[in-house]
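FAQ

Q: What does a record look like?
A: Structure on top, sequence underneath. For example:
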């Protein structure tokens, strides 16, 4: 409908309202002076003045420009405000007139009645048109019945969003809630049921969609609800955080499918923000590998602790640029410096340390992809070992207070080159800690959800393409943690560490990867074996079935935080470790093949036993050597016995 027609209707409503106000004020018996055209107080003058004021206010505020079928409470509030300002203007003019002629042009009661009548008719008419439109629209759309889990403000907002927005095709028929006292009551005209009735209601009410609107729902309970829905082929959706709502209002398009990350999340972690802030406030903090999933999250979390400057270091140009934009636009944080550098380039690193002299370092730069490093052990040593050495040595030289290294659970009883390289880096920084003022702290954790190279983005991509979904082995398991959770614990451990510790995190229970894949398929609304296939591809080079957080010879001691423990590990002599680093440099410079590098890695880390790898033959070499050593020892003992006899 053209906007001028809406404006004409609004002016007509104002005309009806002012006439109605006069009739109500005088009990439908107007005094003759209000009908006398020679009297300045007559309706012949008063009504045009009223309408002129309303017309000017409507044009200036553009109340007629809104799309009627999408009328919201904001539109109603704007109408109320505009009419209020117009009525106040008339009251002011009335009092000015009274000053000159000692009489009001319009009785104040008429102004009040006209105001409330106009507000009511203008807002009610808009909402009536909207309701009729939605009713007509919904009659022509096939409806799906919806249950909303929860009965709080978010639940009501979700219900009204679905009701008010056209073309959703979703009809809310019930609320369910854990609070048994609410069962049998109504919310926004809809019945509330006990949570235990969910499975029964799904079949009874022919439910197609369940929306989780309870934000404080325990992960265990959330998993149970979703499992019931998946077994009944009911789609599960959830609401975004309030801070993501558009202009404070929820949009239907923001209601999203439940993701596998939602099922693996745990209770929020409680951090000692004061200690972390004490460590970082007004300090220069260096984050290496800052463009990666872990490094970038550490940077984002550091912004709230008000460091003097964050040095964002990485060799990946495009991800660094993306992070720079996010810091400026989303976090409104400007105290950072983007540095493109490679941790293997010590000369470039020294320039940075000499210029900025960081107080704290979070070292996340590393190669982490297991099969890649299995095929490129020289790069694993160059970056993960010697790159760490470069940063650590410069931290000591330039008086860095703390060096927090991000390690991995694959460093425990390593079965691959990547894990072994990270273990050697741990050994170096730990050995260095006892001989310097810099506090070297190591943090170990398992896989993080959604990180670069993680299995979940790969599965999601395969599902979107129609499959097949590939899993390496039916029995393979992994520990998972969200990226924010992992980085929070890194900051916490870094703040509490006194130097020399290897902190390990409570990763919860291990997850069977094949179960993860199957659940992701079901969450996508697909049926395994019918809509999409699941294939086993075999373990990749260096991959093991089960991850560990502790070496078999290690034990742990608790800390102040229930999710953080300290691992007790074997200590190495610094001189021996420095000699090993020198040997690594020499090996990299020489024309030695990959086997020579891995052989030396196994010498430094005896628990490094290759799995599903070409380097397994090196372990057989050691077995033969040990066997020969034991045989020689036995022969010596037997000879001594013979001589004594």
């Amino acid at each position: 409908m053209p906007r001028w027609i809406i404006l004409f209707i609004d002016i007509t409503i104002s005309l009806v309202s002012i006439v109605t106000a006069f009739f109500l004020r005088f009990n439908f018996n107007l005094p003759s002076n209000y009908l006398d055209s020679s009297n300045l107080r007559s309706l012949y003058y008063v009504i045009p003045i009223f309408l002129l004021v309303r017309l000017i206010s409507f044009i200036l505020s553009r109340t007629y420009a809104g799309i009627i079928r999408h009328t919201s409470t904001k539109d109603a509030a704007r109408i109320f405000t505009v009419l209020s300002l117009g009525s106040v203007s008339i009251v002011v003019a009335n009092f000015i007139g009274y000053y000159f002629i000692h009489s009001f042009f319009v009785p104040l009661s008429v102004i009040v009645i006209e105001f409330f009548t106009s507000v009511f008719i203008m807002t009610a008419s808009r909402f009536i048109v909207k309701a009729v439109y939605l009713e007509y629209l919904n009659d022509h759309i096939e409806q799906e019945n919806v249950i909303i889990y929860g009965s709080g403000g978010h639940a009501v907002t979700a219900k009204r969003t679905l009701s008010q927005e056209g073309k959703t095709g979703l009809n809310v028929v019930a609320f369910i809630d854990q609070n048994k006292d609410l069962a049998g009551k109504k919310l926004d005209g809809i019945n509330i049921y006990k949570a235990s009735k969910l499975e029964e209601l799904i079949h009874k009410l022919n439910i197609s969609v369940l929306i989780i609107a309870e934000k404080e729902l325990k992960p265990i309970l959330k998993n149970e609800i979703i499992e019931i829905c998946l077994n009944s082929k009911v789609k599960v959706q959830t609401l975004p955080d309030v801070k993501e709502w558009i202009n404070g209002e929820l949009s239907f398009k923001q209601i999203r499918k439940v993701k596998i990350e939602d099922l693996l999340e745990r209770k929020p972690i409680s951090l000692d923000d004061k200690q972390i802030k004490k460590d970082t406030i007004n300090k220069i903090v260096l984050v290496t590998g800052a463009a990666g999933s872990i490094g970038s999250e550490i940077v984002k979390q550091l912004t709230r602790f008000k460091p003097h400057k964050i040095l964002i270091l990485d060799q990946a140009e495009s991800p660094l640029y993306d992070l720079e934009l996010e810091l400026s636009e989303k976090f409104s944080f400007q105290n950072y410096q983007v540095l493109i550098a490679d941790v293997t380039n010590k000369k470039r690193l020294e320039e940075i340390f000499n210029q900025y002299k960081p107080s704290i370092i979070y070292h996340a730069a590393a190669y982490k992809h297991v099969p890649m490093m299995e095929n490129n052990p020289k790069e694993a040593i160059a970056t993960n070992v010697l790159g760490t050495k470069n940063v650590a040595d410069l931290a000591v030289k330039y008086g860095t207070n703390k060096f927090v290294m991000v390690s991995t659970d694959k460093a425990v009883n390593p079965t691959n080159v990547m894990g072994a390289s990270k273990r050697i880096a741990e050994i170096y920084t730990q050995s260095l800690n006892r001989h310097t003022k810099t506090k070297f702290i190591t943090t170990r954790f398992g896989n993080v959800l959604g990180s670069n190279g993680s299995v979940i983005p790969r599965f999601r991509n395969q599902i979107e393409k129609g499959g097949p979904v590939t899993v390496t082995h039916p029995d393979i398991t992994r520990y998972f943690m969200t990226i924010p959770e992992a980085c929070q614990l890194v900051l916490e451990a870094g703040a509490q560490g006194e130097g020399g510790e290897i902190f390990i995190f409570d990763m919860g229970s291990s997850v069977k990867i094949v179960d993860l894949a199957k659940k992701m398929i079901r969450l996508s609304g697909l049926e395994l074996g019918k809509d999409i296939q699941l294939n086993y591809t075999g373990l990749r080079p260096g991959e093991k079935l089960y991850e560990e957080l502790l070496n078999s010879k290690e034990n742990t001691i608790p800390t102040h935080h229930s999710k953080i423990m300290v691992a007790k590990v074997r200590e190495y002599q610094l001189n021996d470790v420095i000699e090993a680093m020198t040997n690594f440099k020499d090996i990299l410079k020489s024309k030695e093949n990959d086997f020579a590098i891995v052989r030396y890695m196994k010498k430094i880390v005896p628990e490094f036993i290759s799995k599903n790898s070409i380097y397994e033959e090196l372990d057989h070499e050691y077995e033969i050597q040990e066997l020969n050593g034991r045989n020689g020892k036995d022969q010596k003992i037997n000879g001594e016995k013979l001589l004594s006899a």
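Q: Is there anything notable about this one?
A: Confidence is low (pLDDT under 50) at residues 631-645.
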